[in-house]
Amino acid sequence: MAWHPFRNLGLKFVALGLGTLIWLTVGSDDFIERSVRVPLVFRNVPASLKIAPDAPDSVEVYLRGRASQLAGDQGNVTVFIDLADGRAGSRLFHLRTDQVTTPFGVEVTQVFPSTVMLTLEKMGSVLVSVVPTIEGDPAEGFEVDSVTVEPAEVDVVGPESQLKLLRSAITETVMIDGVTTTVSQMVSVGVANSSLRLKDPRAARVTVVIVKKKD
Fold first, then answer.
1. What angle do CA 70, 71, 77 make, to 5 degrees?
2. 85 near 134, Cβ under 8 Å?
3. Chain centroid to CA 97: how far?
4. How far apart are CA 192 and CA 168, in angstroms?
5. Could you give the 3-state DSSP secondary structure of residue 209?
6. Can you tell me whether residue 48 is helix, strand or coil?
7. What is the residue-wise DSSP string for 157-187?
8. Burial of 121 (0-12, 13-18, 19+ CB in 10 A)
9. pLDDT, tens digit, for every residue of 90-130?
């Protein structure tokens, strides 16, 4: 078969140009190393345990890769700790480079700190009374005769150390400013401590009986 070096000459020039452009792009994309602050993620936390609030939420990671790969905030990089075998108490967890999720082609050279301490607390529950939150004063010549809430108690779950400090649950505010008749409202119930929660989301009926003042 005869060789025709000038056949499809235009396509050959295009291919050569693209190849040169790719070579220049890759060649100028140097490898660099940079450090980024990334989230610390906890996996497989046992249902019977809770991580103490003082646990670190981020660590420093040193990454190596092409400059184009390491541009930006690296929001897809995370460090994870598997707590499947966790037990109550304070423990040291080592952070290895293979615990870091990174984009393809990016290498992890170091995690700092290399060790973190976590305190895992046992979860428990306690039955506490519900205290209604009332705000305002009835109209002139009227007064509050009684306040009731139903249910009067709720189950709260959370770390045992925080449950020991809990005295009651509270309701959303019921306003009685300027009223002359009984007020009855369904309102949400909750606890001020963010590490605790109701076992089952509940609403309560708060009834404030308003009567005329006696002469």
1. 55
2. no
3. 23
4. 10
5. strand
6. coil
7. EEEHHHHTT--EEEEEEEE-TT--S-EEEEE
8. buried
9. 999 999 999 999 888 888 999 999 999 999 999 999 999 99
Q: Go through the domains of the chain in sequence order and give each one's CATH number.
A: 30-113 (2.170.120), 123-212 (2.170.120.40)
- Return the pLDDT at 103: 85
pTM: 0.62
Q: Which residue has the tokens 């119930």?
A: 189
How far apart, in Å, are the Cα atoms of 115 and each of 54, 55, 66, 94?
Answer: 15, 12, 28, 4
Structure-block tokens of residue 177: 């400013």
Q: What is the pLDDT of residues 176-202, one digit of tens each?
A: 999 999 999 999 999 999 889 999 999
Going through the chain in order, the beta strands assigned E by DSSP cover: 31-43, 49-51, 58-66, 78-82, 89-94, 100-101, 107-112, 115-135, 142-150, 153-159, 168-175, 183-190, 197-198, 203-212
Write the pLDDT tens digit of every residue in 121-155.
999 999 999 999 999 999 999 999 999 999 999 99
- Give me the pLDDT at residue 1, please: 47
Residues in the chain: 215
Amino acid at the residue 121? E
Q: Distance between CA atoms of 82 and 214, rounded to whole angstroms?
A: 67
